[in-house]
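Can't paste images in this forum, so I'm doing it all in text. The chain is below; anyone willing to post the predicted structure tokens underneath?
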Amino acid sequence: MCGRFTLTADAEQLMALFQLSFFPEGYVPRFNISPSQQVLSAVKAAEGYKAGYLKWGLVPFWVKDAKKWKPLINARAESLEEKASFKHLLDKRRCIIFADGYYEWKEEGGKKRPYRIVKQDGKPFAFAGLWDKNDGEAGGLPTCTIITVPANGELGEIHDRMPAIFTAREEIAAWLDKSKPFPEVRPLLKTAPENLFYAYEVSPAVNSPKNESEACIRPAEEE
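Text version of the structure:
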């Protein structure tokens, strides 16, 4: 699964890299993004892509009492078309969620040690996501989920799942194109190549969602 991630890039870098036509005010780098928080995302706009905020943890439109619903932070790519929470979103409510790293915990000797997974070149990337709007959701903000796929080699030794990640503009363009039916873009939801990412152990400061400082991404050996 993917339960925490980072987005430490500045706004100018994100706008240029992802060719965004709109970027919301108030953006600040994030070092420990957690479920139920607002996440920077994008959907297709008339020209380019429009960035904005979604609440992480999907609440489908048909849920009558959002307070009693457990928000869905992840969605397995293999079963999207089978799940009532997701199948109505696959054609028209696809989104991307911006990140430049994500965290996973590896069990070793009875303890869980945190690792941050980043691209070899350090650049930001995008998670494949789905979004929905529930009128009963507090604040009225649309919600989202991050799609996951089986993890590869080294990353699979830390956790058996990883986010479905886009690094190419062509992939993002296809995923956000609402004229393309889901079966046409389903092949994009694949495990990332082994040599594209690497993991490093980080400070246990990341264990608490309350910690939101650069200490969260600091290599463990520097502690």
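DSSP finds four helices and 14 strands in the chain. The first helix runs from residue 11 to 18.
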